[in-house]
Write a structure and sequence with these properties.
It contains 16 helices and 2 strands. It has 406 residues and is mostly helical. Strands 1-2 form a two-stranded antiparallel ribbon. Helix 2 runs parallel beside helix 4, helix 3 runs antiparallel to helix 7 and helix 12 packs parallel to helix 14. The two termini are 29 Å apart.
Length: 406
């Protein structure tokens, strides 16, 4: 039975981890756009490099945590070093160094969060509470966005001083959570060291025989990757689109209520998976995404943008919840760490490579504006919503063909 200590540990580690990822996934893009006038190709390359680093790290460190038979140490120490690496961005002054340090930071973040924290959640849950756990856990990204947007809305992001303050706040917070975790995290009582050798543990989930034995898991990951590609087409450019293209200086006031409502929806939506199963709960997520994308493509005024953003965020968050529950339910017992590698390939690696590449391609001829120093910057346009829409259509065709009950 899950106790209060589990929920407290999950909430603070899950939320702080997502706050750190929001700064990386959304604000690093704004950072290099505003400070160094990065192009769409620069932003796309940074996202892809981070995705590759996250995948390789999670594959290796997930297996290591299984072999060691501990999650707590990797989570706590990982968060401490993760926070220190975030602080280092306060002293970076070029696009290339940002990309390099982003990969370094991703290594520690993926070790602590993608590999250890996610394996820990799988260890602690079972078929009776998976949807509830995922409903709360998948709410974290949007709550984190809300906190970051609201907390930094008064900062002048055109100055290095503002970015220095942001990196220190997030870095110190992440480090302190790591220290606290040493005292409150409890590993699953039946967690044991993997008996196989490290090499065997590392490659286990990539064996064709293992894939055949766990067909539903691997097909779920394939569809999760398609879902993630749609999200990664627009997500790297989302803040820039609201602020620069739509000229919404108050975009935080528009996004905050949408994020809050979507987060509340997700808390309750995860229970639909527990009661009705995967297909009945994932199709409405795709419908919300399509509706949100369509509204954002055709409109640019405050109220319609709010409605479109709400539907888009709700579809994104509930989809993450349902796919997460499906994957955890189908990971073989006692092998959670070994399967974090294939999970990260479906959730981060493939979407992180293909989604930003599509986004950069559809923005190739985007309008340019001239900055005060004579340099130019691109303006993201509605092509990102059209491309994201098309990918969700592919997902909705794939789901009934591949995810029949097996």
């Amino acid at each position: 039975m899950l106790g209060r200590k589990f929920w407290i540990s999950m909430l603070i580690f899950g939320l702080m981890g997502q706050i750190a990822w929001v700064v990386e996934n959304m604000y690093f893009n704004v950072f290099i756009y505003k400070m160094f006038h990065a192009s769409a190709a620069d932003i796309s390359f940074m996202v892809m490099a981070s995705a590759v680093t996250a995948a390789v790290t999670t594959i290796i460190m997930g297996a290591v945590s299984d072999k060691v038979g501990k999650r707590k140490a990797f989570m706590s120490v990982g968060y401490v070093i993760w926070g220190i690496s975030i602080i280092s961005f306060a002293y970076i002054r070029s696009v290339m160094m940002t990309i390099v340090m982003d990969c370094v930071m991703t290594y520690f973040g993926s070790t602590a969060n993608d590999a250890a924290y996610n394996a820990w959640l799988t260890d602690r849950g079972d078929e009776t509470n998976r949807g509830r756990i995922e409903g709360v856990n998948s709410m974290m990204p949007l709550v984190a966005i809300l906190i970051v947007f609201g907390g930094f809305m008064s900062f002048d992001l055109d100055t290095h001083q503002a970015w220095t303050t942001i990196y220190y706040i997030i870095g110190i917070g992440t480090t302190l959570i790591g220290v606290l975790g040493w005292f409150i995290i409890e590993d699953a009582p039946d967690l044991k060291k993997a008996e196989a050798g490290f090499a065997e543990t590392l490659v286990y989930s990539f064996r064709p025989s293992v894939a055949r034995e766990n067909t539903r898991l691997y097909l779920g990951l394939m569809n999760f990757a398609i879902f993630g590609i749609s999200i990664q087409i627009f997500m790297p450019y989302l803040i820039i689109y609201y602020e620069q293209t739509l000229k919404m200086d108050n975009y935080v006031l528009i996004m905050a209520p949408a994020i809050l409502i979507a987060a509340v929806i997700t808390v309750f939506y995860g229970r639909l998976y527990d009661s009705r199963g995967f297909m009945a709960s994932i199709i409405p997520c795709g419908g919300m995404l399509l509706a949100g994308y369509a509204i954002l493509f055709f409109t640019n005024t405050t109220i319609p943008v709010f409605i479109g953003s709400l539907l888009m965020m709700a579809g994104y968050l509930t989809g993450m919840s349902i796919f997460g529950a499906l994957i955890r339910d189908n990971i073989p017992e006692k092998r959670a760490g070994q399967f974090q590698g294939v999970r990260i390939i479906g959730q981060v690696f493939v979407p992180g490579l293909i989604g930003p590449a599509i986004g950069a391609a559809v923005l190739k001829n985007a309008e340019l504006i001239t900055n005060n120093d004579g340099t130019t910057s691109f303006l993201p346009n509605t092509n990102i919503w059209a491309a994201a829409f098309a990918v969700v259509v592919i997902l909705l065709i794939s789901l009934p063909l591949t995810m029949k009950k097996r």
